[in-house]
Specification:
It is built from twelve helices and eight strands. By secondary structure, the protein is of the alpha/beta class. An eight-stranded parallel barrel has the order 1-2-3-4-5-6-7-8, surrounded by seven helices. The longest helix is centred in the middle third of the chain and has 17 residues. The protein starts with 5 loop residues before the first helix and ends in a 23-residue tail after the last helix. The relative contact order is 0.11. The structure holds 3-methyl-2-oxobutanoic acid and sodium ion (NA). The site of 3-methyl-2-oxobutanoic acid (KIV) has 11 residues, from loops. It comes from Cyclotella atomus.
Length: 294
């Protein structure tokens, strides 16, 4: 299968074919996402929450992101487009070379094809922040690294926006999102993630933009869809405990239940002596040799 590129993603939008993106954080998740033929693998900073157990995406560092990117690259080295999230604190500085240098690390050390930047509209209202962020993105694209933009709910800005909640729900805020999407396109982003915004707002942005939109909690009229691996597969589903699943996420499997059942079965069989038994005790001594025990 041919390598997915920023160009092939763009041509999917033009031909009306939906783009698929799923997160991966390590070798096995990357292998599975690749085997399923998903177009884009995102090493998301959601890693901080679903893999590392933090409450937000803020704590994960660039070095930690690169460590996860390297494992994903080994799991899906050839076909899908690999995008790595620039973590909180790695690209916001006035000095745009910091962002460019860190983007180069994601490519050279992490093996990523592209990086993703969040851009928060509510911050831009305070001090023209989204224009400055767009300039950073332009600087990174000029430097030769493809950029995926991310607007709407931008979890890294949790301390500014106050909580994980839908964005763009008034006409003024919807308009600000559209302006930011256009800014991202003008800055050279190859696509834009739209997270947790009304479906009609996402549809309007998708229609205005030339570059593809990839939605999560943004309705069906985007150029593609992205979900978090653990959410869509039910990695923490459990027979007796409630699992948190975002409202917009369909669960396509209950992998957590399988894991819990497998582990419980192992424990039971070890304790009652059923495992390993003869079937899983394959090694016998070479009978030609002299006895070592009398
Ligand atoms: O980190 C992440 O998983 C993301 C996606 C939800 C787009 O940014
Ligand atoms: Na993210």
């Amino acid at each position: 299968p041919r390598k997915v590129t920023t160009l092939s993603i763009a041509s999917k939008k033009r031909r009306g074919h939906k783009i698929t993106m799923v997160t991966a954080y390590d070798y096995p998740s990357a292998v599975h996402v690749d085997r399923a033929g998903i177009d884009v693998v995102l090493v998301g900073d959601s890693c901080a929450m679903v893999e590392l157990g933090f409450e937000t995406t803020q704590p994960i560092t660039l070095d930690q992101m690169i460590h996860h990117c390297q494992a994903v690259k080994r799991g899906a080295p050839n076909r899908p487009l690999l995008v790595g999230d620039m973590p909180f604190g790695s690209y916001e500085f006035e000095d745009k070379d910091v962002a460019l240098r860190n983007a180069y690390r994601m490519v050279k050390e992490g093996g990523m094809d592209a990086v993703k930047f969040e851009l928060t509209s509510s911050i831009s209202w305070l001090k023209g922040g989204s224009e400055s962020r767009a300039q950073t993105i332009k600087h990174v694209v000029d430097g030769g690294v493809a950029v995926l933009g991310h607007i709407g709910l931008t979890p890294q800005a949790i301390s500014v926006i106050g909580g994980f909640r839908a964005q763009g729900r008034t006409a003024v805020r919807a308009r600000a999102l559209l302006d930011d999407a256009i800014r991202l396109q003008d800055a050279g982003a190859f696509a834009v993630v739209l997270e947790c915004i009304p479906a009609n707002v996402a549809a309007a942005i998708t229609e205005v933009l030339e570059i593809p939109t990839i939605g999560i909690g943004a309705g069906g009229d985007t150029s593609g869809q992205v979900l978090v691996f653990h959410d869509l597969l039910g990695m923490l589903s459990h027979p007796h405990h409630e699992e948190f699943v975002p409202k917009f996420c369909k669960q396509y499997a209950r992998v957590g239940m399988e894991i819990t059942n497998g582990l419980a079965q192992f424990k039971k069989e070890v304790e009652d002596g059923a495992f390993p038994g003869e079937e899983y005790s394959p090694y016998v001594m070479n009978t030609d040799e002299e006895k070592i025990f009398d």
